[in-house]
């Protein structure tokens, strides 16, 4: 008998955890949402409600469906509340130590059969699986940002992920109405192996004075038909996440072509992480984004 997935536990109520909780609840799954503090979780629940309200206001979501979905999401401040979840999706910060600690803290409270998925952008699924203590039930489930809008979910099997876990995960993603692509477990998988070096190169282009922030973004939006310019996208993803992915590529593939741009490092060191801190390649504090270079 396969596992019937009804309830999802999401660890991390940042931009990705909120998006994952949002789409799971709208697709009829119960959701337990965890973060480092009750305030963070409450903030996450509020943001999900506002995001869904925008869809209601635009006429693409029924108000009653919004209410039902919100009613399916509960705050889960500790690992103990994860005892009845069928799948845990780890969506905490892109830092291997943090992810390992979450896995060792949460796994003892999970049902023996529960699947553990990680939304990591770049870190080895095989290594995280080993830290979870149940590598055969561990899998990479890499959603794209913004989760409610983006069609793709990259699925990554670790070396020990069994067929049952893979099939049940595919079925779950299908129920979310998303499309799967399968990537092998190499640093940053497919999307970020291609996308992040492009973004890093855009930052080098800025660093070397080839163009201003606006020139680079306009060039790629209008010249390559990208929906967002690469610096705008970097701010949207989060510059901390961009830097972590480049470090994983640089360390994991040992090729200087993945060297993180020093300007990216400087922005992260300044705490200018993009939209989430109101400042990155653009300053968002006045409401209208203003280029910082
Ligand atoms: C780093 C990684 O590990 C992997 C990654 O995710 S890499 C990043 C991948 N993502 C991208 O490349 C995004 C590129 N940008 C885009 O595709 C578009 O600019 C965009 C989809 C973000 C916005 O497009 P747009 O046409 O301006 O959107 P807009 O009309 O404002 O909104 C469209 C929908 O998206 C939703 N949306 C937009 N931004 C959102 C956000 N930050 N969070 C949640 N939903 C959001 C809107 O609510 C709206 O939903 P409804 O139709 O239900 O109302
Ligand atoms: N941003 C993107 O475009 C994408 C990101 N991802 C991946 O998704 C994951 C989350 O990224 P994103 O949502 O952008 O990051 P955010 O920084 O927006 O959110 C991460 C959240 O995790 C919380 N957190 C940190 N440690 C713990 C912990 N021990 N227990 C519970 N929660 C914790 C953070 O709290 P605090 O801030 O207090 O530390 C924060 O609220 C990362 O692995 C990232 O690589 C995947 C696809 C796209």
Task: Provide a brief overview of the structure.
The chain has 293 residues and is of the alpha/beta class. The protein contains eleven helices and ten strands. The protein folds into two domains: 7-184, Rossmann fold (3-Layer(aba) Sandwich), CATH 3.40.50; 192-291, N-(1-d-carboxylethyl)-l-norvaline Dehydrogenase, domain 2 (Orthogonal Bundle).
Q: Could you please describe the fold and organization of this structure?
A:
By secondary structure, the chain is of the alpha/beta class. It folds into 2 domains: 7-184, Rossmann fold, CATH 3.40.50.720; 192-291, Orthogonal Bundle (N-(1-d-carboxylethyl)-l-norvaline Dehydrogenase, domain 2), CATH 1.10.1040.10. It is built from 11 helices and 10 strands. It has helices at 15-26, 38-57, 63-72, 96-106, 125-132, 163-175, 191-207, 213-223, 230-237, 239-253, 262-269, and strands at residues 7-11, 30-34, 73-75, 87-90, 115-118, 138-143, 152-157, 179-183, 282-283, 290-291. The protein has an 8-stranded mixed beta sheet with strand order 3-2-1-4-5-6-7-8, sandwiched between helices. Strands 9-10 form a two-stranded antiparallel sheet. The longest helix has 20 residues, at 38-57. The termini are far apart. The site of NADPH dihydro-nicotinamide-adenine-dinucleotide phosphate (NDP) has 28 residues, from helix 1, helix 4 and strand 6. Residues 11-17, 34-36, 40, 91-94, 98, 102, 119-121, 142-145, 237-238, 241, 276 line the site of NADPH dihydro-nicotinamide-adenine-dinucleotide phosphate.
């Amino acid at each position: 008998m396969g596992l019937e997935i009804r309830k999802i536990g999401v660890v991390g109520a940042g931009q990705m955890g909120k998006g994952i909780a949002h789409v799971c609840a709208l697709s009829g799954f119960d959701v337990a949402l965890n973060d480092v503090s009750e305030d963070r979780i409450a903030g996450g629940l509020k943001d999900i409600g506002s995001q869904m309200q925008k869809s209601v206001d635009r006429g693409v979501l029924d108000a009653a469906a919004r209410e039902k979905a919100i009613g399916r999401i509960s705050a889960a401040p500790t690992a103990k509340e994860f005892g009845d979840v069928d799948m845990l999706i780890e969506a905490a910060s892109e830092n291997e130590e943090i992810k390992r600690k979450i896995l060792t803290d949460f796994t003892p409270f999970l049902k023996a059969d529960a699947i553990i998925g990680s939304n990591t952008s770049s870190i080895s699924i095989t290594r995280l699986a080993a830290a979870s203590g149940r590598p055969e039930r561990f899998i990479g489930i890499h959603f794209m940002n913004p989760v409610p809008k983006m069609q793709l979910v990259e699925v990554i099997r670790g070396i020990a992920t069994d067929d049952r876990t893979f099939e049940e995960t595919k079925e779950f993603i299908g129920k979310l109405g998303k499309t799967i692509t399968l990537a092998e477990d190499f640093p940053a998988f497919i999307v970020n192996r291609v996308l992040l070096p492009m973004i890093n190169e855009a930052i080098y282009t800025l660093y070397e004075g080839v163009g201003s922030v606006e020139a680079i973004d306009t060039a790629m939006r209008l010249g390559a038909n990208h929906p967002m310019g690469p610096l705008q996208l970097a701010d949207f993803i989060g510059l901390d996440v961009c830097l972590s992915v480049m470090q994983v590529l640089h360390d994991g593939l040992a090729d200087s072509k993945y060297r993180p741009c020093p300007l990216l490092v400087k922005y992260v060191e300044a705490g200018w992480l993009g939209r989430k801190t109101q400042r990155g390649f653009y300053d968002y504090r006045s409401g209208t984004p203003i280029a910082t270079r």
